[in-house]
Every structure is written in structure tokens, then in C-alpha cells.
Amino acid sequence: MAYLSPSQLQKFREDGFLVLEGFWSADECVAMQRRIGEILAEMDVPLHCRTEFSTQEEEQLRAQGSTDYFLSSGDKIRFFFEKGVFDEKGNFLVPPEKSINKIGHALHAHDPVFRCVTHSPKVQALARSLGLRMPVVVQSMYIFKQPHLGGEGGPAAVSPHQDASFLYTEPLGRVLGVWIALEDATLENGCLWFIPGSHTGGVSRRMVRAPAGSAPGTSFLGTEPARDNSLFVPTPVQRGALILIHGEVVHKSEQNFSDCSRQAYTFHLMEAAGTVWSPDNWPSEGRDATPSREKLWATNASASTHRPAATGNSHLTSRAFLLLVSVQTGRQEQNLPLKMGTLLKIIAGSPAL
């Protein structure tokens, strides 16, 4: 079972993050990577939509806020690229599969494999053990952290930030990041770093949608304060680890100086009960594409009435997950789509094969 122990819950509440090694099997991780490989093989991004992704504030505003490709990606699967991978005409300078920074922001809604992962019963069990009653998935991303691209030595470092700066709610404390290591994350290839306990001081800045017709399309309110680097704690993890990230904990990652990528699948949950999604957020309801906010489980009933029974069928086993992937892949090869209703039945009732 994936329920958190009392000591794990206490550590998460104290630190604002929690590492769960071995949450996913190596085979499950490989299956997710294989699926992304298939998505990349079908990638077709028009020249005018080839957006270089940045984590630095000024470049964020230019590269993200000024392009409809980014602003309309909240309910789509779209591709964002490292810096310096295009020539002046928008042609690739490196192999396309090595140029990708991330894929976002609705893998959880539109791809059956990543939908299966996001909505798996063991992820649901984590949410229930944290006391969530009506969790919804607000966005998802596949992050590549390519080696030796995006700046000297490797992809640019991700500046210290709080996820709630981008996913702001009233009240605060309603956003949870779920970060899945699909490859080992090391000091050399850019593992995550956290300031333990930094989730208790509120949010220092916010990215908001600019008024209609303005350019760029987003702006920042407030500034990110200078952080004492000595407060950050590295969290190297092995493939298959899951890291829970409180929406207000300060975290970052350094450049990838290694010869290896550091791939991860990540998504964010929001407790919808009694929570207001800020109208200034991106995506903004009524202005941007409707966010793909899917309920983590099928009903609004309380967690106490929906704990899965402690039986062999209570969670999606590694073999059941791999069976689902193989069935989906086989149907794709035969040009026979797997109906979403069938997929959900597999997810909900996977036997312990």
C-alpha cells in the first residue's frame, strides 16, 4: 500500500517535502520513457511555435508570456525546447529528441499511459493519507534535463522558486507537487534541492496573467528574495523514487553537467474543496484554454468512504501497469485505439497478476 506512515506525514509537514524511494519499479519507469519516445517520434512543431523554455524571470516573460503556443497549452500536449537548439530560421541544430526541455501541460488528460500513472490507486492512496478530499490534477509535465545543452555545462539551472507562485490558490497550502524520477537524479545531473521548512513563510512572488491585449501575456508580482545557498539540501534519488512537494516549499535544481539526462514526470494536485483558483493564474479560466482539471478519483465522496480494501486488487501492480502499456501500444501498432472507458476500468480494477 502507498499510505504514508505517521512518521512520514510528520516529516512532510515539518520539511515541506518527502522522498519515497522505490515507489515505481524500474520496468514502470522504462514504460513511461518508452511512451515519451513514441510521442517524440510523432512530434511535429511548426517553425513559429518552436518556443525555447526558460526558468529565469525576464526570459520567462519573453519566451512564455509572449507566445500563444505556451499560453494555450494548459489543456494540450506541447513541446518546449532548450536554449540554443535552433538556428535563425528555426531549424534544429541538434537532434530533435535531444533538444526538448519539457512536454506539457496535459499529459495526464490526453495520454493513456500517463493518465494511468497519474490516477493510479497508489497515487490516490498518497492523496488520501495526506487528508485530501477532492484533489484535482491541474497540470502535468515530462522534464528531460538534457546533458550538455541549454547553457555552458548543461541545461540551465532552475532558479529557487515556489510552485504556488505559478499555481496560486486562496487559501494557500492547497497545491501539492508529485515528482517521479524516471532516471537516477544525482548531484552531477541536476537533482532537486530544498530548503526544509520553507513552506511556512507564505509566497514571495506570483506569476499572473497580464490584462487582455497586453504583451507579454504574463508578469510577476513581487520578487524572489536572495536565498542563502547554505540552507538548501540536495535530494539525490534513484530511478522510481517519488518526491512529494508542498506548493510553498522553496526548491531548485542545478545545471546538468553530466553525460546523462535526468528525466522526470511531474504533476500537481490541488485540493478543490473550499479552494479558489486565482483568476489571475495561468491558465486563466475564460481567457486561456480550459485547464484539464481532472478529479484524482471518480467521486466526491470523502476519503474515509473510499479507501481501497487491503487486498491484492487494491492497487495497480507493476505487472498490471505494464500489461496496460503493452495493450495500449499493441492497439496503436494495429491502429486500434484503446477506448478511455476501457482504460479506466483497467486502472480501477487491475488484478494482482
TrEMBL record:
One Pfam match: PhyH
InterPro entries on file: Phytyl_CoA_dOase-like
Coiled coil: none
Gene Ontology molecular function: any one: metal ion binding
Keywords on record: Iron, Metal-binding
Co-factor requirement: Fe cation
Family the UniProt entry places it in: Belongs to the PhyH family. PHYHD1 subfamily.
Job description of the protein: 2-oxoglutarate(2OG)-dependent dioxygenase that catalyzes the conversion of 2-oxoglutarate to succinate and CO(2) in an iron-dependent manner. However, does not couple 2OG turnover to the hydroxylation of acyl-coenzyme A derivatives, implying that it is not directly involved in phytanoyl coenzyme-A metabolism. Does not show detectable activity towards fatty acid CoA thioesters.
Protein known as: Phytanoyl-CoA dioxygenase domain-containing protein 1
